[in-house]
Amino acid sequence: MLEPADLPTPPLREDLRLSEALPGNDGEPCWMIHDTVVNRFYRIGWLEFECLLRWERTPRQICEQISEQTPLKPEVEQVLGLRRFLEQHQLLRPDAAALKRLREQSEGNQWLTWKWWLHHYLFFRIPLLRPQTRLQQLASSLDWLFRPITAWLVFLLGLLGVIMVLQQWDSFTHAVVESFSAEGLVSFALALCLAKTLHELGHALVATRLGLRVAHMGVAFVVLWPMLYTDTGESWKLRSSRQRLAIASAGILAELSLAGLATLGWALSEPGMLRNALLYLATTSWILSLALNASPFMRFDGYFILSDLLDFPNLHERSSAIARTTIRRNLLGLDEPWPEPFPAGKRRLLTTFAIATWLYRLVLFLGIAVAVYLLFFKLLGIFLFIVEIAWFVVLPVWREVKHWWGARAQIPSRRKLLFWLALGLLLLWLAIPWRSQVHGYGVARSEQQLRLFTPYPALLQQVHEAGPVDPGATLAVLDEPDIAARLRRNEASIRSYQARLRGLLADPTGLAQQSSTLQRLDVELGEVHAARSEIARLTLKAPFAGQWQDVNPQWQAGQWVGPREMLGVLIDPERWQIDAYIAQDQVHRLQIGGQVRFYPQGQLTAIEGKVVTIGSTRINRLSHPMLSARQGGPIATSNEDEGLAPSEALFHVLIQLDSPPTSLRETLGQVQIEGSRRSLLGEGLTYSLAVLLRESGF
To answer: Are residues 587 and 688 in the same domain?
Structure first.
């Protein structure tokens, strides 16, 4: 029986097209294989080109002829590898057995298999348009859009818009926060559709202007999430990497242009529907362009831009292969050959990029899995969540571990010992209950404090300057002219009634009027007493010794002050407490008297304290607005009738500080409370079981 090296290679398909491409970074000539049926392009090097010139011979004969006629010295295994590549991508002419297999696949009920559903759940495309004719007409009519003066004008207008928004940044951020509503989400979705349509149109127009055919445009579903797409696969026909870069970056540039112009429009327009629409366009375009499309870690525009800039096709696959080999060689000591001969510095860069890509995708896929779980009903959501984690996370890890296990005989004994020792230390680190700290956020405040307000509108006469005060010290003196005038009238009436009583006592006939006069006198005396009580309330005194602060320096004598205007704050500078808020799944680890460290915001030095009380029920609202994310704080909240309600379940914990903060003002900060010790492994298992019990409906 002949060996594979002595069997003729099967013929290539006749509809393939071979064209010369731009040389690589190392100067090696390159060519492109164009599969005209599926409109795909495959880049090959000099050796593969020489092999294709001598195809349909045996691999051994191909190697001999290439060695005799060129400086290349190929091996038989390289030719066999090229054959496997061509077979895998169906670039060879199918024989009878292959035709039968393809016929069975096309006629079979593949949609009844779980693999078909899994593949089409994870990714499928729906072509909607074949826009080539209309794109050519549109490209010719929009020729002015691609001139340098237009680009500079859009750039300057967008820059002006950013500068103007920065000058009213508070209004802009407030408008963004206020837009998070049911109506706002619909508007964001519409703005997203418009931005992505212009994005894909940018790709299509640039490709058309460069003489390429845009086969179709449509909607792609990635894990059931719809995304517009444009087929610009023919960009590999272009020999110039700058032209390919222009196509890849056209979408981002279109969105950034839209974002800049919408930002300028928002800054110039008056409040209303138009301004809200421009806000939605600006925010969606900026965020999607910079945070999503520009990322090189997924196969979006940023990836293709980076690949074209580096002239490095298949960057993800090739960097991942280098990273896997690097891990196997350095971690396990395997003497595996490098997939490609790169310098050591370039290998390190590719390895770093691949690891960053893995971590980015891990976070992204976990987020997608959680989103899929939340979007569907419970049973389907759990199933799809498991599929996401298994396909994108568990399966790649399993393949690599399987490779390690298959090569275990080649691992040096010392590396095996170090590997198992490191694994044991990791498990020990996860299993030992060393974690005792419970983290949360809180506001430090004086245990005894008084916010001073006038009881009713009054004229300010004087206010004590900020600083230390003694008990009973006058903090503010106010005057209410109406009360003072009423008091004078009442006092005059009292004098009149008293004089009348003296006259009635001297007159024997005045006894009949004496009783009514006494009653009127009592009424006037009561009103005088009430007026004097109200006037006394306008002299505000310190009920305890403390620090008088937050006094408005613009207060002036004779100025009217309303009951909602705070005159100042009197605090006890000696004793301070913290209103801390702890997550529901952590509060059970706390106990009264537990040690606390409070880190005020912007400070590295901690203040010691201890737990005084622990709330038994979750809080309904935050007592301190500065903790709310709407005010720039760390806790997400929603507006309700009773105030700012936390989005997650939080419990109030009261903490007594050993010493006051240096600022002697209400201070936002983080708290670290000593609780019962827990292991990372135990916490993970407890959390997982809690989620399973909660979602199973028990």
So the answer is: yes
